[in-house]
Amino acid sequence: MKEILIGLLFAVFWASASVATKIGLQSAEPFVITNTRFILAALLMLVWAHLVRRHPLPKRSEFRPLLVYGLLNASIYLGVFSWAMRYATAGLGSLSVALNPLLIAIISAFVLKKKVDKAVWAGLLMGIIGVGIVTFPVLRDSTATPLGVSLLFSSMLSYSLGTVYFSKLSWSIPRLVINGWQVLFGALTLLPVTLWFSDWERHEWGLPFWGSVLWLAVPVSIGAVQLWLYLLHRDPVKAALWLYLCPILGFFYAWLLVGESITLYTGVGTVLVIWGLYSGQRSPKTVNTRAN
């Protein structure tokens, strides 16, 4: 039950990222949103971890994995994702998250030599069908450029690689420390791109920008990622099944915040997604907890 509640809460926060990014893009540059979000989230986590909780700094040998994870899971994934939001709808942004469970399962099978349980494969398939049904009317009516679609796929591939990379390693430091440092490295590696490619004359430091950044930094980068790291320690493939809820919740947020309609497709697809989650989560655990 605890794992189900954590998975649900993760999906609730993570699904809000596309809408929050779209709101920020009304007056802000994508890389500036992402970099500011990273810096704020990293400072909050590292101050709390090292000054308040008195956790030790990572070992010298742990900084390189943190840098690689930060590149894959932060700067490349979220930097490219925020860029893609200029050329794709928020609905497509939420939909793209549904690629991750399948990508993670395939990469895990090859990299981790991990045999994926049949029930998990069934859950993956059911989730794909459910998400496809939910998004059919949106895809039929929405517009996106080839660049936007390519960027979304690239960002999801980076996220999936980062997920498997994280699961492959044995970490000796708390999840909060891992998250804080990987986000800081994400900010530092993305900063040159932000400074070089952002149109500073277009950027406005108003309420849409700061509201977007604060939401993305605290509930998403801190809250959702902490929950995600916990799920990854249990089983990366099963954790990925929770990503199927993100498009469903993303469309719900769109209905709630901008008045988009919820159709019969939404209801049928949601039932299939929940069925897929149940099917995958009830299979035997295939990866043991390796860290805090």
List the main descriptive attributes of the protein structure presented here.
single chain, 292 residues, mainly alpha, 13 helices, disordered C terminus
Radius of gyration: 18 Å
Distance between the termini: 19 Å
Largest sheet: none
Indicate the proportion of strand residues. Answer: under 5%
Low-confidence stretches: 285-292
Sketch the topology as an H/E string, one letter per element. Answer: HHHHHHHHHHHHH
**Helix share, percent:** over 70%
How many DSSP helices?
Answer: 13
Task: Tell me, briefly, the overall form.
Answer: globular
Number of domains: 1
Concise description?
The protein has 292 residues and is an all-alpha fold.
General description of the model:
This protein is mainly α and 292 residues long. It has one domain. It contains 13 helices and no strands. It has helices at residues 2-14, 17-24, 30-52, 60-84, 90-96, 99-111, 118-141, 146-168, 175-197, 207-234, 236-241, 245-258, 264-281. The chain is globular and about 50 Å long. The two termini are 19 Å apart.
Topology readout:
Blueprint: H1 2-14, H2 17-24, H3 30-52, H4 60-84, H5 90-96, H6 99-111, H7 118-141, H8 146-168, H9 175-197, H10 207-234, H11 236-241, H12 245-258, H13 264-281
Helix pairs in contact: 1-10, 2-5, 2-10, 3-4, 3-9, 3-10, 4-8, 4-9, 5-12, 6-8, 7-13, 9-10
